[in-house]
Amino acid sequence: MTPAAAISMTPAPETLRQAGADLGGWLAAVRTPCGYGGPAVGARAACLSWCGPAADWRLEGILDAHGSRCAVAAGAEAVAALDALAADLATLPPALLADGSLRNSWFEFNPGEGGMPHEPAVLAAALRARRQLVRQGRPVPAGLDEAVARNVEERVLKILWNKQLQTFCDWPMSGYDQYSPPTVAAVIELLLEYGELAGGWPRLDHYLEGAAASLLAVQRPDGAVAGGLPLSNRNGAPCSPFLTARCLPALIAMRRRTGEPALAEAAAAAAAFVRRSALPGGGYPLLVHPQRPPGRFPVLTGAAAGTLTALGRAGLLEPGDLAAQLPWLLAHRQPGGAFATADGFGGGAAGLPAWRDVLPVTGWLDKLYALLALAPVAAAGGGAAGRPATVPPPVAAWSCEVRLGWRRRGRYVEEADTLRIEDARGRPLFRWRKGADWAEVNELAG
Amino acid sequence: MNGDDFLQLAAQRRSTRLFQERPVPDAVLRRIVAAATAAPTACNRQLWHFVAITDPEVKEQACRLSYAEQSYLYDAPVLLAVFYDASLESRNPCKTPYLSAGMAIYALLLAAEAEGLGSLYLGGIRVPRGLAGAVGAPPFLENLGLVCLGYRADTPPAPPRRPLDEVLSYNRCDLRAPHFPADIRPHLWSLRQLADFREKLLWYKGIGIDAQTLHVNPDPRFSPAIRHLTGRLGMLLARRERPRFLDVLAYNGDVLLQLLLAAGARLDKAYAYDLAPGILHYLRERLRPLGDFPNLEYLLNGDPDRPVIPLPDGQVDVMCCYQRLEQFADPQPLLEEMARVLAPDGRLVLLVSNRLYPHLYWYRRMCGQNYSLGRNWSRGPERLYEPAEILRHCRAAGLEAETVTGLQPVELKVAGWLEGWARRLGGHALGDRLAGWQAGHYAARGCSRWFARTLVFELRRAAP
């Protein structure tokens, strides 16, 4: 497909806005005073018992989405976006523990604290949102600055800084000679925001330079993964297009701060890897191995959206990127207004989708929400003619057939206040009342 | 310095595992080593030698070659490798080289404390020759460990110390039985011995509270059973208004901590029960840096000779016991006590290792007897039970099983093995299918649960 043809396939900005608004409505239904709840499904694990509010990367996308809306909207819509931003930011300080970690910050491993790269990603997004609030003359939520300072000083710099490797670890307990580039990139973003807020640059520069150097040191120079940033610094670790894209804003921001041309080159190579990895029909493979065929499944919709928003935050998003992914993403929109989590859980077998594919996950939907807030502007800026709005209004209740195991069939049911998965005889295997901390029934995972 | 000053110095010394980046001045380092050289030594031979490692590259090499890769070794600004020339005394039955080096090491630690530095002695070097090679020590010098030195970045809590009267006798030794039994067969133990053993495991076997062990490692490779248990308990608690929760033999508090952080505000009361005061002290110290938990109460065993939970009958709505039954040769008294404090409509979630799981490690060590040392020393000795045995004991205690779930059933092992091979041979499609299948089959409820690695019994009080 030529770029021009691709752009002409881009959904119209109005379609994207409508899909974003519907998704916002779905997310509002799972919001509690303490934050956004919902089950979590990751690539290898799922957390279905704990469905309470979490301070993992779900807040990053939601805050960024509010921020994008604040930036482009006007009048009552802008005020509503600012109100939502302030309300969501206010849920962060109570999630902070005395040692600086955030409770329930491990996404699919919740309930658990100290999740990486969730904590720095959320706090960096919080500081971006804070900037926006201040710019609009709004007060900063009580305790936010202290919460960020405590996390940075007591946890990131004191506990997670690896003096030997001169970079940041995920976990201080084991694997001390290992680090994870997406975590390092998230911490770089946090420290840059924190430095703007609290100063202390000469000290922070020491950490930032070491961390940026550790990113450059692991970038793959050649082969199928050329330009990719691997999951860890282990030899032969695969690269994820999504997690590589998440490193881009940090590389670009560090380039701006230090003027180091190698950082810009690394970002360009990483963006090229991300684009090269895109699947023909839409989405990105989960992992690309240096010497093996890519492990394609599951293809996560949230990861694809997160890839595009990361490209956008780094200023590297091109209209062709949106054109290639948005139709595929919109095809996963569910009648309730949320989006399916993935294609191909369980190996992409033909036939029914797996229950993991269908179950909407707040920690992936936030990335779609952020993209749908960003995409109308980007699509319009790219001169997309767009297709007419084809998003049907969300319905309160709907259901579909799903695969539960090798040959077991079941049904996913979404109602106004409940998500449910049941077996062929109607026996509930998972039931969560929206807004509750714990599932009522969980016989599926975790 | 008077005697009180010295006692205070000795009492305030702690093993430090978190250091500032600030370097240790050479003059301070020399004073500390000078103190070590003033230590007594057999026949005043002074055959020790100290190598101060400050170069990060040498440090990295020393850690890697000796397989001592704890994070604090990298973090400490100075590693002091302690050597002693034992070649002339290899037949000395009194082991004087080691005693001399030991006295020097303690002098080092005290001197570091007096200089305001944190220190830690690491004796468990897996490959001492690797360390010697990294610093170029000649073969006649024997490495006797490493001392980490640096300015403290944390304030570790004080572990409990045994009372003086317990360790001091006059004229005749008062101690008649081993205080810390080396025997790992729990059927030979009294409850007092078990309590003592668990307390010492916690404090003295490397589970000190510091930044590394403060949180539960949520990576499911390390704690899938805890995640499952937390999920089940959370769901049970959510069905009740202001429930009361009891963690039976809470030990290092992993389960309790997860629940308090996730659902603590909903609880009317959370109880942590264990056998020894030192264990509860550990729990308090661990939870302190994470926040206030006003509804948490610590319960010490009410009778040193049998398990007695100091709560009235029917007090607890949800209770858990995470892989603790294995430490009792006769679990009956503990089960009866749990049944007593369980509310009539309450639930007890019991996790027990399954003897029927084909675990080569366990079988190798069982060698015809029912006991094995836990996979690591944080668990201590264990007795493995068959599912029918547990159910029989539960029935005898007045408990009936509502559900039995198997965690990590044996087919998961087979699937993991197949997935590895499929991926090695490039069959990612099959690998992905197998991975997806495994992700949904950690908890089994079919026949294979009886051959799972861990069994989860959800129990309630049997109808009278």
What's the gist of this structure?
Helices cover 47% and strands 9% of the residues of chain A. Chain A has helices at 3-9, 13-29, 58-72, 75-89, 92-95, 118-135, 144-156, 181-198, 201-218, 241-258, 261-277, 301-313, 319-330, 355-358, 362-381; strands at residues 31-32, 35-36, 40-41, 46-47, 161-162, 167-168, 299-300, 342-343, 398-403, 409-414, 418-423, 428-433, 441-442.
Question: What this model shows, in words?
Answer:
The complex is a heterodimer of chains A (446) and B (464). In chain A, a hairpin with a 4-residue loop joins strand 3 and strand 4. Chain A is globular. Helix content of chain A is 47%, strand content 9%. In chain A, helix 4 crosses helix 6, helix 10 runs antiparallel to helix 11 and helix 12 crosses helix 15. Chain A has a five-stranded antiparallel sheet with strand order 9-10-11-12-13, with no helix packed on it. A two-stranded antiparallel ribbon of chain A has the order 1-2. In chain A, strands 3-4 form a two-stranded antiparallel sheet. Chain A is an alpha+beta fold and 446 residues long. With 464 residues, chain B is α/β, with parallel strands linked by helices. Chain B folds into two domains: 148 residues, NADH Oxidase, CATH 3.40.109.10; 266 residues, 3-Layer(aba) Sandwich (Rossmann fold), CATH 3.40.50.150. Helices cover 37% and strands 19% of the residues of chain B. Chain B is built from 16 helices and 14 strands. In chain B, the strands form three sheets. An eight-stranded mixed sheet of chain B has the order 7-6-5-8-9-14-12-13, with helices on both faces. Chain B has a four-stranded antiparallel sheet with strand order 1-2-4-3, sandwiched between helices. A two-stranded antiparallel ribbon of chain B has the order 10-11. In chain B, helix 3 runs antiparallel to helix 6 and helix 8 packs parallel to helix 11. About 2% of the residues of chain B have low confidence. At the A-B interface, strand 4 and strand 13 of A face helix 3, helix 4, helix 9, helix 10 and helix 16 of B.
